[in-house]
Amino acid sequence: MPFSSEYEAVIIGSGFGGAAMCARLSKRWPGQVLLLERGKAYPLGSFPRSPNDLASNFWSPRDDTSERPRHVARQKSDKGALLGMFDVRSFARMDTVTCAGLGGGSLIYANVFLRPSARNFEQHWPQGLNLATLAPYYDIAQSVLGARTIPPHQNEQDRRFILRTQQFQQFAASQQLPSKLSDIAVYFGHGYSYAGAAQPSEIGLQEKNRYGAVQTSCTYCGECDIGCNVHAKNTTDLNYLHAARAYHGAQVQTQARVNQIVPLNAAGEDDASADGQHGYRVYFDDFAAGSARTVTAKRVVVSAGTLGSNELLLRCRDIYRSLPRLSARLGQRFSGNGDFLAFALDGQREINSTYGPVITQYTDHHLFENHDPERAFLLEDASVPTHAGWAVAALQPVLHPWDRFKMLLSVAWEALASLYPGRKSQRLGSLIQQLLRHDVTQYSAVLLCMGIDKSDGRLQLNQAGFLDIDWPQKTSQPLYDAILALGERFKDFIGARLFMPMPNWLWPMRHNVTVHPLGGCTLADSPEQGVVSGRPEDRGQVFGYQGLYVADGAIVPGALGANPAATITALSEWIAHGITGQQPDDTLR
Ligand SMILES: Cc1cc2nc3c(=O)[nH]c(=O)nc-3n(C[C@H](O)[C@H](O)[C@H](O)COP(=O)(O)OP(=O)(O)OC[C@H]3O[C@@H](n4cnc5c(N)ncnc54)[C@H](O)[C@@H]3O)c2cc1C
Ligand code: SF4
């Protein structure tokens, strides 16, 4: 791609923060905005599905020595580098799962668009920034992302009926807890997702969405967390980024990993003592071309996600020393958003966990109603891809050894009986049916919880100069205990044989896993309190620098309890409004 000598703005990262920013800045400065994204683009049908391709679709570039699971390290040494989607990292007491690709986390997220409780903004947020201030930006983000609840069904035979949703609703009622259908950013047809129609388009119908990108009306396949191959998820490459490119000439470069940001002096030279008034030079690796490159810009917006933005800025401050004025608070107030994954396995009630979009409802455990910050969390249902259902079905011999033994006897008997001349086997169909019935995912549930953890973690660099997380964990134990207690009650409700918190929670591992990392570059009223300004006049700007902004999960000052993408997008809209001075709307024109 030919680069211009100087851009009005360079944006780093294409998740919720970066994509919304790209649409707004490119409208303000058409053709003069460049977005750099380290991952690849995923056009219709390109998300891998075979076990081998999925296993290779991790992120671990050649020179990156971050702590990653052993099998990722092995794959990397076989292939030299892994430049796929799943960025899985292991730290002491906390693992993280994020995404590399055009669209960032939206490619593999569970589609939930949820505003947090107003109570959330009472502590640690800058003065005057709250749910009411952000309401217009949430409205626009929700409209652009096309988030609505799952469409209604006529009866239980209707393909739009999702049994799992019903079971979670019944569980919530049994616990006197409210359950609400989640707004999800899934395409159910232009009319339903964007124009407010009561009825969706036919399942599987392909149409252009309101921004001109081709999407498919959701097929209920349950594969949202490994990338939607029919583009029914309203990922940011199909709305914000599509419009930025189509309407406003934004340039987007994938496979471009930014390594360093350096301020320029009046002569246009790199100068670490400069404050950004003359712009910045951005250094990046172009993985496709196999070369290192640079661009300059008047403004830089860092939207590399909580892990990416903190790592980049920590390296610029402490290793390259190109941004020495960054606040001493950089890396503090990290939160895993109270994430906790668990399973209720092999129950008596049918759940059908391989059907429908991944999350459809949330059960409120003292987050919105009867707010109790010590044990405030949400319980969300989840589907798993059918492939996982087949893999779990392989557990049958372990879970039901007697049934399997009887089946083997049947096969042996059938083989013997077939030796009688003229006897026809009639039992093949029945054997296949026996083998497949009562498959584990049909009677098991995935429990996704998230809540108000203490947000007292710290992001820092390890000795090799890559990101490390210090997660105190014990301070958030009351939250995890409340989640475990509700999980046990869910197990009893469906009559499950086993309640299993995520496997690495077992003693002595005691690891949390988060898919919602937040904080580290927190919004604040002053550099003594945070890294990025939360004041209306210079919102989103990094303290100590002009024209350097952060707009992503890193600026959220603590756990939200709710799924964070809505808040990240709304904050990015709010910051972009400040930078451009232009009132945003959902047409993106
Ligand atoms: C399985 C899963 C399910 C989830 N479900 C939900 C949900 O239902 N609802 C919800 O609200 N949230 C959900 N989340 C979380 C949500 O995806 C994140 O909170 C959100 O994507 C964060 O947005 P962001 O803009 O901060 O960063 P990201 O979306 O992470 O985007 C950052 C981008 O920057 C790129 N990048 C990083 N470093 C560099 C660099 N140095 N140079 C160039 N590019 C770089 C990354 O590749 C990435 O594309 C889920 C996450 C996962 C993993
Ligand atoms: S259920 Fe299937 S078709 Fe629908 S959004 Fe998820 S992955 Fe796409």
From TrEMBL:
Named cofactor requirement(s): FAD
GO molecular function, one term: steroid Delta-isomerase activity
Keywords attached to this entry: Cholesterol metabolism, FAD, Flavoprotein, Isomerase, Lipid metabolism, Oxidoreductase, Steroid metabolism, Sterol metabolism
Annotated pathway: Steroid metabolism; cholesterol degradation
Domain Glucose-methanol-choline oxidoreductase C-terminal: 513-571
Record keyword NADP present: no
Family to which this protein belongs: Belongs to the GMC oxidoreductase family.
PANTHER family in alphabetical order: CHOLESTEROL OXIDASE (PTHR47470), FAD-DEPENDENT OXIDOREDUCTASE 2 FAD BINDING DOMAIN-CONTAINING PROTEIN (PTHR47470:SF1)
Protein name listed in UniProt: Cholesterol oxidase
UniProt organism field: Chitinimonas taiwanensis DSM 18899
